[in-house]
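job 3f2a | input accepted
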Amino acid sequence: MNIWGAMLKMTGWRVDITAPRRDKCVICVAPHTSNWDFVLGLAAYRSLGREANFLMKKFWFFWPLKYLLYHYGGIAVESRKKSGKSLTEQIVADFNRRDYMNLAVTPEGTRSRTDAWHTGFLYIAYGAKVPIQLGVIDFKNKIIRIADEYHPTGDATADMAAIKRYYADKAAWARYPEKFTTA
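job 3f2a | predicted structure (183 res):
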């Protein structure tokens, strides 16, 4: 057991990641109601010897934190005006040039209650031609799960509806259930 697994075990958390190990995939994580989601998700993935990337506002990539964020897979998100490309185009290009990329995203895009989930992760999966693994951080039972995989159809409306249906009964597992909705 590595340090990540030991930390989770000491705090009573279990890892149940049974989705196939992929060289390239998007990992959709919901509900996202707490900063602990990031810490627990990172620890769970690392406990299995896997690495994942994550998106974070460039604002957070300041000295000395930026070195830690980059080391653990952080991708600093520039504003569109500065880069000239959309974020989706940037990430799809990253997928195409790398041999390994597992990108963890929170479709809500916020820890606050919102039913307006972002579709960017779907367009990244379409452009990169990768599956979406469905992750849940279950605070109620102290389990980090990635058990199911979704193969997007290319129809963003239908794909988002299917993914929201998957998460519809998982509000009780959120750190703050009142902050989660798929409605």
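job 3f2a | Strands lie at 14-17, 24-29, 53-57, 74-77, 101-105, 132-138, 143-150.
job 3f2a | closed
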